[in-house]
UniProtKB/TrEMBL annotation:
UniProt main location, coarse: cytoplasm
Domain SEC7, first and last residues per copy: 524-713
Species this chain originates from: Zizania palustris (Northern wild rice)
GO molecular function per UniProt: guanyl-nucleotide exchange factor activity
Pfam families the UniProt entry points to: Sec7, Sec7-like_HUS
Biological classification of the source: Eukaryota, Viridiplantae, Streptophyta, Embryophyta, Tracheophyta
Sequence ranges of Low complexity compositional bias: 900-911
Protein name (Swiss-Prot/TrEMBL): SEC7 domain-containing protein
């Protein structure tokens, strides 16, 4: 990554532009690889000459006229010697050449005689020679360079510009050392020296020019990056036990930066941490280990200490911001490798995070932003080691600053919200907060509070939409998107069983069996959350009535049936939301059980190696100290027993702890009670506590420290109720660090949605409301599209986790934004819809959800249908919305005299009585706009109107509304049933009086859709049939005049029967029984549709005669055909259907014989039509005798079943003969004669069967006699 170019200065190269190992043009080929020794010698000589030239002009040395050589200054002599050395034949092969070549320049840098100009040019030459040496430069040489730069001196009185140039070149030299290939050989001490020297320059630069200030800080930054970039390469044990502990500059309380330095008045920069002889390059024999963890620990500790110094001195934001940037770079480069090294990790966990908690409340947005950036990096790399620290950060910083009700400035709120959104963009952040904190009984519900914060922050309450609202929305949608992405990774939906506790188990000691197993881990986490919820409910009961609260917890198996002190004490200790006044009263009660609970409660605290006042603060934060002296006595006794048990070396006995604790409480009241006018002095406090330590005095320093601690920081004896946003006091931080050692393992989120169901159930309601409010208030397309992404994400999650109620709520919200439900009169609703981007996006989103996730929509179907009906009224629906799966293969119906032929009755083509709609479908609506009525001239539509209509057309096409119904066969049963019920509900209850055209049109359209989904779901007709039948029955029975609705109902019912009879034999009787509704039609309605009804019944018979088995079914069908005998238009079709059944006995059966004979008789008696039809009817009756004879012969045996069968056949014979007998009395001669002939044929056949066994008993003597006498 490139670095920004520093502002240029003559002769000064920017760090950013300096290559790691550059070489001068003159020595480019003469590097340390020995490629061109002569070139290297020339280059070094040139650098020495350059330094000599400046020295001769500025060095103070004695003048000797006789012999100039003897008068040469030692620095001049060493440079001349260097020029001779590099050209000697043995120099090129000497391993000591690099050190020897650098030493004259280093001497010049160290020399007090050298002025700023000499020092500056020496530093430039040093860098050039180092670059020429390249990889051959040894670690010993680098160590000498660091020592020399750290000891850099030059004479006083230099100009400011020259002095700044020296400082900048010092920094360049140090950077060159840390960037050199052999930099690792510097050793820990020299790295610390380099960093310390650099920081001293940074400090000195504050009084210098802007260029030096920026350059020095950049150099410091680069040094830190160079050092910590090596951390990932260091093994767990490497560099951990250095023989020499490196030291940074010590702290000086009198110096604002805590850096010791020695100034001798002559521009000297001398580090106190000068290296010892063992790090020199004189061949002492000691091997210097590569720098590693020791120096990194020391440097990191030094950087953290800068924050401590700032906290103590209260300087401006410049230094803490600089320190935070350096720390951030160290963490970025060290990354997850920090956890491998306990000392570094401990610094991060304790000292760094403690300082971050303090600076997190800074009013400076720069500091707050940097703190949040560091915590984000720590979360990314080290979150498994920082569970409680992260909880504290979000509880005390983010949740506090992001809300105005806690007094944060707007810029603080904005920075905190930006940081929270950055965390939310981490895919597993929220699920980890939920699993580790919300599901831990000792932690806050951080996930829930953060989700609520985002939802509330997105609401623009009594104010316009602002960037803060949009920011919060982005955070919410990032959380939703993370859940949606995990759904994409899921192989199947996790089966989450409800959590229940069957028996009592101490909830505070429950452990996970196996964290590496997802099933065990998820079960454990969900059980902990269940326990936490129950504890909070129990706390609510306890706050109203302590006795009932404990009984509730016993009933849920969180407390044992017989209460014991430990379980009640742990309930008080680990349950949030308890009324601390009630807890204090309970613990201070004199009852024996309460006293036992008090002592068990004290046992839950860890006071090991803790100061008495700190321990007392922690103890009294968990409840309100009672006001009665006896109760206070009992409470402090329990506290002192526990404290002395863990720290027996602190006092002579536990009574000392008790007396001193009581004294501290009295001091606290004295110092912080406004009613006390005369305050206790330090001497008074010490005097009051004489001879309490077993007859002797406590150390004065200890008492003095206790006194000042109480004076500075009051002990809150009335702590906040519940879990408010507290400040991180020192005592709380100590307690946090204690708990962090024993807290449960951090659960790292994975790519599976194991916990998303529970999380989404918590946040879904506020999330939908927040997205909807922003969508409502915004007019920017980018924001609207972001909201659409949120809506689709919510729908995806709801569908995956079977949260039908959530999906219904989402559908309701979207329907409001479509504007389709707005019944206010709009002059051009289609144009208005096309111009409204928000409405079009909402409509497209609504129907996208209905198509993708319709399986999980329940009551929301009603709202979806309201929108569809509105589009229908506007003529914007595609023509095939109500089509069913078989429409594509059906032939278009032919029309005969304006009525549909029986060949095809389609829900989309059935003629409608009355005035049809002018146009339906998108193209029809669009063409209306373009057409001009010749009788009523209209203005030409404008380009804007045409564009709006085109946008409307495109939106409706994208919605794919027809797919909701044509693809309904794939819906889940519950959703399909709700869709059908919604259609019936939308259609409304039929009225006997005429309804308005709009209401009737709606009812017709809904019925079309209902029939369509019925036909599309023939395999699940049982699920729908009852509702469909009842709806059609209501229409039929409430209609007294022909209308489109009853017509659609009748022919829809017939069509359902036609289509489903071949597939649903088990439902055939139900389907055929439904046709009895036709018989209940009002006479006027039946007469209007008689011909078409007969055509459809005939179609049904011809197509499905073989599927009609029952007597009831045949009765209904034949009855529908027989009633047409006297209808002039329908009788012919009805008779043809009867002929189809009876001809040659093809479809005659014992089930339908009697009904067919009766129908034939009615057609024979009918005067409608020609006599020829009556003759044919008589022939059908006469020919049917053959079927009777055949059935009689087929009935074998003499058992009861055979006897019943023969008896039924005899009854059929009798019905046949009686029908012919009646027709033989017809007034029409031709019919009468033909009837007599037919009767004679039948009687003759009967006599033949009666005389031949075994069928002689087929017709009884009495029956035969009655028929013969009639004849």
């Amino acid at each position: 990554m490139g670095r920004p170019r520093m502002p240029g200065a003559a002769g000064i190269d920017s760090i950013a532009e300096e290559p790691p190992h550059s070489s001068s043009p003159s020595g480019g080929a003469a590097g340390g690889d020995g490629g061109d020794p002569a070139g290297l010698a020339c280059a070094i000589s040139a650098e020495a000459s350059a330094v000599l030239a400046v020295m001769r002009r500025s060095l103070r040395h004695p003048r000797a006229a006789a012999d100039d050589a003897a008068a040469d200054h030692p620095l001049v002599s060493s440079l001349k010697a260097l020029r001779r050395l590099v050209f000697s034949p043995a120099a090129a092969a000497s391993p000591s050449l690099p050190v020897a070549a650098l030493r004259p320049f280093l001497d010049a840098i160290r020399s007090e005689d050298a002025g700023a100009a000499v020092t500056s040019v020496s530093l430039v030459a040093l860098r050039e020679v180092m670059a020429l040496m390249g990889p051959s430069l040894p670690g010993a040489a680098l160590r000498e360079v660091v020592d020399a730069v750290a000891s850099c001196r030059f004479e006083a009185g230099a100009e400011a510009a020259a002095e700044e140039a020296v400082m900048m070149r010092m920094l360049q030299a140090l950077l060159a050392c840390l960037r050199a290939p052999a930099a690792a050989a510097l050793g820990d001490q020299h790295v610390c020296t380099a960093v310390n020297t650099c920081f001293r320059v940074v400090h000195q630069a504050t009084a210098k020019g802007e260029l030096l200030q920026q350059f020095s800080r950049h150099a410091m930054h680069e040094l830190i990056r160079c050092v910590f970039a090596r951390l990932p390469q260091i093994g767990i044990g490497d560099g951990g036990d250095g023989s020499v502990k490196p030291e940074m500059g010590g702290k000086d309380k009198n110096h604002p930066f805590g850096i010791k330095q020695m100034e001798n008045g002559n521009g000297s920069y001398i580090s106190e941490a000068v290296t010892s002889d063992e790090y020199s390059a004189d061949g002492s024999g000691l091997v210097v280990e590569p720098y590693g963890i020791p120096c990194m620990v020391e440097i990191f500790h030094f950087l953290c200490s800068l924050l401590n110094v700032v906290e103590q001195t209260g300087v401006d934001e410049d230094l803490p911001l600089f320190a935070l940037k350096l720390i951030n770079s160290a963490i970025e480069l060290g990354g997850s490798s920090i956890r491998k090294h306990p000392k570094l990790l401990s610094l991060v966990q304790d000292e760094l995070f403690r300082n971050l908690m303090q600076f997190g409340l800074s009013v400076s947005p720069l500091i707050l932003s940097m703190v949040c950036t560091i915590v984000l990096n720590l979360y990314h790399h080290l979150r498994t080691e920082l569970k409680l620290q992260l909880e504290a950060f979000f509880s005390c910083i983010i949740l506090r600053l992001a809300q105005p009700r806690f007094g944060a400035a707007y810029h603080q709120q904005e920075v905190a919200m930006e940081a929270l959104v950055d965390f939310c963009r981490q895919k597993n952040f929220m699920v980890e907060m939920y699993a580790n904190l919300d599901c831990d009984i000792t932690c806050r519900n951080v996930f829930e509070e953060l989700a609520n914060l985002l939802s509330k922050s997105a609401f623009p309450i009594n104010c316009p939409l602002s960037s803060m609202h949009i920011l919060a929305l982005e955070g919410l949608i990032s959380v939703i998107q993370g859940m949606a992405d995990r759904i994409g990774n899921a192989t199947s939906r996790p089966e989450l069983m409800p959590v229940e506790l069957d028996e009592y188990t101490p909830f505070w000691i429950v452990k996970c069996e196996n964290f590496s197993n997802p099933q065990h881990r998820v079960k454990f986490v969900r059980q902990r959350k269940y326990v936490k919820r129950r504890l909070m409910i129990g706390a609510d009961h306890f706050n109203r009535d302590p006795k009932k609260g404990l009984e509730f917890l016993q009933g849920t198996h969180l407390l044992p049936e017989k209460l014991d002190p430990q379980s009640v004490a742990c309930f008080f200790r680990y349950t949030a939301g308890l009324d601390k006044n009630l807890v204090g009263d309970f613990l201070g009660n004199h009852d024996e059980f309460c006293v036992q609970v008090l002592h068990e409660f004290a046992q839950t605290f860890d006071f090991l190696e803790m100061n008495l006042d700190t321990a007392l603060r922690l103890f009294l934060e968990t409840f309100r100290l009672p006001g009665e002296s006896q109760k206070i006595q009992r409470v402090l006794e329990a506290f002192s027993d526990r404290y002395y048990e863990q720290s027996p070396q602190a006092f002579a006995n536990k009574d000392t702890a008790l007396v001193l604790a009581y004294s501290i409480i009295m001091l606290n009241t004295d110092q912080h009670n406004m009613q006390v006018k005369k305050k206790m002095t330090e001497e008074d406090f010490i005097k009051n506590n004489r001879n309490i330590n077993g007859g002797s005095d406590l150390p004065r320093e200890m008492l003095s420290e206790l006194y000042h601690s109480i004076c500075r920081n009051e002990i809150k004896t009335t702590p906040e109720q519940g879990m408010g946003f507290f400040e991180m006091s020192p005592s709380r931080w100590i307690d946090l660090m204690r708990k962090s050692k024993s807290t449960s393992l951090y659960i790292v989120g994975d790519s599976q949605p194991f916990l998303d169901h529970d999380m989404f159930a918590i946040m879904s309601g506020p999330t939908i409301a927040a997205i909807a409010v922003v969508f409502d208030h915004s007019e920017h397309e980018e924001v609207l599209l972001t909201c659409v992404d949120g809506f689709l994400g919510v729908a995806k999650i709801s569908a995956f986790h079977r949260l039908e109620d959530v999906l219904d709520d989402l559908v309701v919200s979207l329907c409001k934004f479509t504007t389709l439900l707005n019944t206010s009169l709009v002059e051009e609703p289609v144009t208005a819809f096309g111009d409204d981007l928000k409405a079009r996006l909402a409509t497209e989103t609504l129907f996208t959800i209905a198509n993708r996730y319709g399986d999980y929509i329940r009551t929301g179907w009603r709202n979806v249908l309201d929108c569809i009906l509105r589009l229908h009224k506007l003529g914007l629906l595609p023509a095939r919305v109500a089509s069913d799966a078989a429409d594509d293969s059906e032939v278009s119906p032919e029309t005969v005299q304006g009525k549909s032929t029986p060949s095809s009755i389609s829900t989309s083509h059935t003629p409608v009585m009355g005035t049809p709609r002018k146009s339906s479908g998108l193209m029809g609506r669009f063409s209306q706009l373009l057409s001009l009525d010749s009788e009523e001239p209209r203005s030409q539509p404008t380009e804007q109107q045409l564009a709006a209509h085109q946008r409307t057309l495109q939106t409706i096409q994208k919605c794919r509304i027809d797919s909701i119904f044509t693809e309904s066969k794939f819906l889940q049963p519950d959703s399909l049933l709700q869709l059908a019920r919604a259609l019936i509900w939308a259609a409304g209850r039929p009225q006997k009086v005429a309804s308005s055209p709009d209401d009737e049109d709606t009812a017709v359209f809904c019925l079309e859709l209902l029939i369509a989904i019925t036909l599309n779901n023939r395999d699940r007709i049982v699920l729908l049939w009852q509702g469909v039948y009842e709806h059609i029955a209501n229409i039929v029975q409430s209609t007294v005049m022909p209308c489109a609705l009853v017509e659609k109902a009748i022919f829809g019912l017939l069509r359902i029967c036609q289509r489903l009879l071949p597939y649903k034999e088990n439902l055939a009787d139900e389907l055929l029984r439904s046709l009895q509704l036709v018989l209940k039609l009002d006479a006027r309605v039946a007469d209007a549709y008689c011909e078409n009804i007969t055509q459809e019944v005939a179609r049904l018979v011809k197509a499905n005669a073989g599927h009609i088995k029952s007597q009831m079914g045949w009765r209904t069908v034949v009855l529908l055909l027989s009633i047409t005998a006297r209808h002039p238009d329908a009788s012919e079709v009805g008779f043809e259907a009867i002929m189809y059944i009876m001809s040659e006995g093809a479809h005659l059966s014992l089930s339908n014989y009697a009904f067919c004979i009766e129908a034939s008789r009615q057609f024979a008696e009918s005067r409608v039509g020609l006599i020829d039809r009556s003759i044919r009817a008589l022939d059908l009756m006469a020919d049917s005798a053959n079927s009777l004879a055949r059935w009689s012969q087929e009935t074998k045996g003499t058992g009861e079943e055979a006897e019943k069968g023969l008896e039924a056949i005899r009854e059929m014979w009798l019905k046949l003969l009686q029908a012919l007998k009646k027709l033989s009395l017809d007034q029409r001669e031709e019919v009468r004669n033909h009837a007599l002939t037919s009767l004679e044929r039948c009687l003759t056949a009967t006599q033949g069967y009666a005389s031949s066994p075994p069928h002689g008993h087929m017709l009884s003597i009495s029956s035969y006699s009655r028929c013969s006498m009639t004849y």
